[in-house]
Amino acid sequence: MKNIVRLLLITLLLFSTLLTTFGFNWTNVAYAEQVSTEKTLKEDILNQMGNYNKNFTLSYDGDFSKLKTLIKKTMDDIRKENQYIYENTSKWQVTMKSVGNKGTISFELTYLTDQAKEMYVNAEVDKILPKIIKKGATEFEKVKAVHDYIVLNGSYSSKTKNSQYTTYTFLTEQKGVCQAYALLMYKMLEELNIDAKYVKGYSDNERHAWILVNVDGNWYHVDPTWNDPIGNKNDEVRYKYFMLTDKQISKTHFWEKEEYPAAKSEKYKDFKVAKYNAKRHFDRSQNVFSLWSINATVL
Q1: DSSP character for 134?
Q2: Structural domain of 244
Q3: What is the CATH number of the domain that holds 194?
Q4: Most C-beta atoms within 10 A of its C-beta, which of 4, 8, 92, 254?
């Protein structure tokens, strides 16, 4: 009887500690069909999240005394390495059930989107990219084409029918907030096999998101939201926040630098575009070119 009481007290203590600190819950054991181990856990979770499954349970075979730490690390790895899926997840909670080294892990997740909407996003991105990317385009030209498309085809607004934060809303309503701009750019670059990072930070004392992109081995900051003119200017693209170094963008943007690769190359410091077959050009200090010059020559 004393052992039973002791087990109950330990269980309650674990429940209290895990739920408060980590958002975990620990209850009596049950079993699920899919068995995960320490080596397969991340892949198994990603397979479920990739299908935007809200509730799923995995059987686990391993050391449950270390599981809460493992899950926390696994979700943090997904946050860093699988950003599109993670940034479309607004909440996650875990319930663990075990006897010895066997038991289950149940996940409850809340998403900003769903599988049907993401199928639409995938189809639209597949249609758009061949139209805006020229044959033989360099990495830089691909990044510029994606950036220009997003700026020219959307407007900043939180007044949306669907979530203001998603690529689906941006593509269907042509508007959204910084997260929608940045996630769409991240998504398109990912499809083009161009390495990119979704950056979360602050600007104007508000939460903000933009992109780090790797072009020819060097990282650069691109903020499509801040390059989109506010107001009735759908025929303009700005370049003030395009291909910047850490030093350049840190004048207005703030982020945890240790979380992201350093952007030091000043190759595009004097980036300019010229109107197609025209003498007049617009440099960074003017920060704008017109819609009809979408095929502008880079000087």
Answers
A1: P
A2: 115-298
A3: 3.10.620
A4: 92
Residue 282 contacts residue 288 (beta carbons within 8 Å): yes
Domain of 35, CATH number, reads: 3.30.110
Q: How far apart are CA 211 and CA 237, in angstroms?
A: 17
**Predicted local confidence at residue 69, as pLDDT:** 93
Kindly report the pTM of this predicted structure.
0.81
85 band by pLDDT with thresholds 50, 70 and 90: very high
pLDDT (0 to 100) of residue 204: 87
Residues 251 and 235 in one domain: yes
SS3 label, residue 46: helix
Residue 154 token pair: 């959307």
Average pLDDT across the chain, whole number: 83
The last residue of one of the domains, among 66, 90, 111, is 111
The answer to whether 146 and 134 are in contact (CB under 8 A) is no
What is the Cα Rg of the chain in Å?
Answer: 23
Tokens of 69: 């730490």
Residue 167 shares a structural domain with residue 266: yes
Between CA 110 and CA 99 the distance in angstroms is: 28
- Among residues 111, 134, 155, the one where a domain terminates is 111
* pLDDT score of 229: 82
